[in-house]
Write a structure and sequence with these properties.
The chain is mainly alpha-helical and 207 residues long. It is built from 11 helices and no strands.
């Protein structure tokens, strides 16, 4: 996911420059997900990326710059499935598809999910303006669509914003609490999780 992040694409440059930026972001993701922001160091990120520290600093001037680039790229990826909701589609099926996509992201991008969760648990020092701006605007727009579906009788009565919170919590749990899930189940079970969540949300949303 990092190689195709918005941060790398926006930065531009030659192919080699893009590859090195991608390598730095991939290394940063690994280190930040394991050590947290405070525990991560530029030396460790450079080593993980296979670069010297001066070479890394040519592309990103600080640890904070790498962290911020990662978070903004991750948020864009996180929001894409919500933007993809078809406002003219079947409400239940559209929301179930969103649930399924969020669970797939928890399965495929666990480090990214934990990085984002750690940022939120730290008080969102880097992301709070984006959460209060771009994210809130998108949630407000989506909530308006859900409320219209409810008013048209095409969706059971639900609180739109709390519905989205529930979807995020119940899907990202499988990434953020991976150790707990595997300890209880003896391994991950995304197929079982998908079947369970579809049943839960279908019952909740169907008129």
């Amino acid at each position: 996911m990092v190689e195709n992040s918005a941060a790398v694409q926006k930065a531009g440059g030659t192919r080699i420059q893009r590859e090195k930026r991608a390598a730095i972001l991939e290394a940063g993701l690994t280190v930040f997900a394991e050590a947290g922001f405070r525990g991560a160091t530029l030396d460790r990120i450079a080593s993980e990326a296979g670069l010297s520290k001066p070479n890394l600093l040519y592309y990103y001037p600080s640890k904070e710059a790498i962290y911020e680039a990662l978070l903004h790229g991750l948020l864009e990826t996180w929001l894409d499935p919500l933007r993809a909701l078809d406002h003219g589609g079947d409400p239940v099926e559209e929301l179930l598809a969103y649930v399924a996509r969020k669970l797939e992201m928890a399965r495929d991008f666990p480090r990214e999910s934990r990085l984002f969760a750690n940022e939120i648990l730290s008080g969102a020092p880097q992301m709070l303006p984006v959460l209060q701006g771009e994210l809130r605007a998108l949630v407000d727009e989506t909530a308006g669509v859900i409320e219209r579906w409810v008013s048209e009788g095409r969706l059971a009565k639900v609180d739109a914003r709390h519905l989205l919170f529930s979807i995020w919590a119940q899907t990202q749990h499988y990434a953020d609490f991976d150790v707990q899930v595997q300890a209880v189940l003896g391994g991950q079970d995304f197929a079982g999780a998908a079947a369970h969540l579809e049943q839960v949300f279908r019952r909740m949303l169907t008129v």
